[in-house]
Amino acid sequence: MKPLIGLTADYHDCASAGCCIPARVEDEKVVVLGSRYQRAILDHGGLPVILPLTADKKLIGQMAGCLAGLLIPGGAFDVPPEFYGEEPAPGLGPQKPERSAWERDLIRACARRRLPILGICGGLQILNVAFGGTLIQDLTKDGVNPHQQNTPRYLPWHRARIVPNSMLARIMGAAGKMDVRVLVNSTHHQAVKQPAPGFTVVAVSEDGTIEAIMREDLSKGFVMGVQWHPEMLFPTQPEMAAIFKAFIGFAKKRENKNR
Questions:
Q1: CB 184 within 8 A of CB 233
Q2: Annotated catalytic residue 229
């Protein structure tokens, strides 16, 4: 039995100008999620399921009870700064408070059950906030954002240095190596400022931007977030495939324990 991996998704208003599906009823929305997230889970032994957005915490708890793991993908919006105790700063982009609150509560519900959790790009950011961390609201300086690539997402943009002897280094098969650098893609304007309590930085970019964090205590469950998009890179970069293998591997162990 493949472990069931929950995925969050975006919801677009079908009546809006940016939606390609005409509304059939006044309040209809379309669920949007890049297929590469699902492919990454399927190709590495998991069974992906898209979860419905809700503010009902009881229902969120029931969702967590059905899953073996949770993947929070990225999205073209920012986490509301009030979620981490800050006022909006210049450069802050559009927000989707309803989705961010849902993902925060879902992360916490899955963490209480010690499920493995993987956050990607914006998913890393809400994961960090859900556990008590903070964010840099905008990386742009002098009108330039060095972390927003102008090439296709499936191509790497810059290098990230993996912290030696970290769990991420072991996942990538680089245990014991002191200088491990991997090519990553980059499509973000926010980043982790203060990692959440109990989390450690496991990758940084060459300009010092935090690229990955991981919860230190694995006895509480595997929880990791990466700022890049490994779902775009795994077909050509084995170290990116290793991230999904590890995540699904922890989900399988969690499911077998519950049988």
A1: yes
A2: yes
